Amino acid sequence: MGNKPPRRFPVVLYAAAGEPEPLADYCRQYAHARDWDAIETATDTDRSAPLTSRPGWTRVLELLAAGTVRGVVTYSAQMIAESTTDFDAVRDELQDRDAFLSVARSITSTPHPPTRHTAAQATRRRDVADIAAGYDGCGTERESAATASPSAGIGDLVHDHVADRKGVVTDLAVGGQPVLRPLFGSGSTWIPEDLEEIKVEARRGAWRLP
């Protein structure tokens, strides 16, 4: 009997806008590029409504609660909340559910120190970070440091010497600039000021959260 092919990580796409379909399609391409399986698309047309009262977001929570999906892909942080603090709170809530929240269109923002977590929370975030970095969880091989490109790639752990902080590459902006997020997933993403001051400390799959 042949082995079944590894199952890709299931995600739900979420967009909130007057015309959400084009944004959802952008999210679908983003998920496809990372080999995630877009199970369903949930949309809302009134972004001014509280997140918990939106029918589309309610559907997202239902899929997460049922274990149908392991992650949420949205077009921008503003689809979820207007403030960075509120967005981070939602992302942390999803991570406590052993799920991740990924933003397809990252925007440069002012970095701030990551939140401290308990050992149990750190373990959960380590596992979630593996998923968000592209780990398929099914034992398939990932790119090794020996064969990786010299430049920073998605999922790599890097040290931004200008900002004097470490981050994980979640996306590549125009010109190949890496978009970084704090190690524990909380806090805003940022784009390094000087690419010459970026050092790749470990390739995707070759590092773990402390």
Automatic annotation (TrEMBL):
Name of the protein in question: Resolvase/invertase-type recombinase catalytic domain-containing protein
Classification via Gene3D superfamilies: Resolvase, N-terminal catalytic domain
Native source organism of the sequence: Streptomyces lunalinharesii
A Pfam family recorded for this sequence: Resolvase
Domain of life: Bacteria
Domain Resolvase/invertase-type recombinase catalytic: residue ranges: 25-110
